[in-house]
Amino acid sequence: MEYYHLRTFVAVAEEEHLTRAAERLNASLPAVSAHIRGLEEELGVALFSRTPKGMRLTAEGRALLEEAREALRGLDAVRRRAGALRQDVTGVVRLGLNNEAARLHVPEILAVMTRRHPGVELHLVNSSSPRILDNVRLGRLDIGFVYDNIIEAGHEVAVTPLEEVPMAVVGPTSWSERVRRADWDELAGLPWVWFSERCPFQYLLESSFSRRGLPINKVMVGDNDATLRTLVAAGVGLTLLRRDDALEAAAAGEACVWPWEGMALGLALVHRRERAADRCIEAVAQAVAEVWGLPARKR
To answer: Of the residues 60, 85, 110, which one is the last residue of a structural domain?
Structure first.
């Protein structure tokens, strides 16, 4: 059981609403739901009844609420005392982002860091997964988000898995009927807008086609998601996007979406293993784990 589990439990109990609790905690709604679910699983009791009007404490939840508040008060006192006994964590952390900040819950992470470690200055660097991984290894970045299928066996980075990101094949809207009915064989024969070297999207598709013994008809290469969407909208060929990007493109009339939903990429947080004891990196990793509603797991 973590501090943030109790903090979320008390906030939801007092607000009686997940969304209001998330706003109060500066956390995402999925993270708040995950905290409550994780606490209920650990305790073995249902803490809330979900109703159309919001969250209502069960008898077990009411019995535990005051003890949770008391535990939080005790933990806060320990933290205050510890802060007085040691120097606060200070320094600069260069954090690599492989997607938009909002999708990586960066605002919530910043809120946690500001509250707990105001002496840590975060420098946000937007880049691609391969560049982030390389720069973490080279010490040019301290920590970063990457898709984990580009991490080789025997790597020297610590990896914290975060979530599986659904992916989707998209094509020009004029091909919508053909794409909707297509199987893997037909997709392989259509023109593809391909990806730059070591792109996680490339690895995922190559694996999907190669295990079926199918060659790929690559006609052009794009080096970022915006370019891929533009080329698809222009009728050049198929490509692969995050499913949320694919649905957004379809809603904008820029693309059609292949209906098969079996592909996903693992999103992870990485830093050099040898820097695991760095207090600044540890602080950021703990903030990410809290915001994403996950324990800090490494592999």
So the answer is: 85
Count of domains observed in the chain: 3
Distance between CA 142 and CA 122 in Å, rounded?
Answer: 10
Residues 270 and 260 in one domain: no
Shared-domain flag, residues 123 and 196: no
Tell me whether residue 120 is in a domain: yes
How confident is the model over 15-41, as pLDDT tens digits? 899 998 888 887 888 989 999 999 999
Residue spans of the chain under pLDDT 70 = 80-87, 154, 295-299
What pLDDT, on the 0 to 100 scale, is given for residue 185?
A: 93
The mean pLDDT of the chain is 90
In a domain, 127, yes or no: yes
